[in-house]
Amino acid sequence: MATATETVLVVGSTGNIGVSAIIGALRSRHSVLAVVRNHDSAEKMFEHVGTREGITVVEADITSEQGVLGVVEKVGKGLLPAFQHVYAAAGGFYGATPMHELSAQELRQYMNVNFETNLFAYRATVPYLLAQNHANSTWTLCTGAMGDFGMRAAPALSQGALYSLANVACRALRETNIRFNEIYLLLRVEVDSSAARTGFFRASAFAETYRKILGREDVKSARVEVREKRDFEELKFKEKRFEMVLKKDDEVIG
Hints:
- The structure is a single chain.
- With 254 residues, the chain is an alpha/beta fold.
- Helix 1 links the parallel strand 1 (7-11) and strand 2 (31-36).
- The chain has 9 helices and 10 strands.
- The chain is globular.
- An 8-stranded mixed β-sheet has the order 3-2-1-4-5-6-9-10, sandwiched between helices. It has a two-stranded parallel sheet with strand order 7-8.
């Protein structure tokens, strides 16, 4: 059972998925340390979440290597609350430039916003969580399906990199105090006010997925697939365990 003193650091907290993560954390009786771009984005986040209670905000540029690292340094100095969990929901850059027209500059921008932000967050926070050695820390990454469907070249390419990040993290952290999990989301989730207009899925409903991950110690080094609405509450997950066997050509050996 989560305690009121545990805190989730949410990276990408002002987007649709970030808002959902905050709602799920609060439902689990966790506090939230939300990384935001500026005051205006923080105010919008508070509006979509529906409360300010239990949420501390800090401004940082998450596209910079120093962004989340600076937040962790402030935590270490006691200027911000300590955290035991991380939810990475950075990204959301979804242009439609065909791959044969994609410039190197545009691709780098997509990789920075959609991929590097999450990698920077991982590099900044994992050493801190390992050093704290909290018995049930978690690190959760939300990915989408574009990398598998091949829709929209640059978003798909950056999603593919996120899948690899998740695979590496699951292997690297399997025997540690950090439960790393990937949420593979195949549905369009929007903040509730937007979903009420468009008919897509509500952030407050998707929040149940994260609430359950926080409370399920058996969900570790896994991909949690969310393909339909009922998956919000009935977790479908499979541990990512890869055993590499280097096969040899018997004919060559013989």
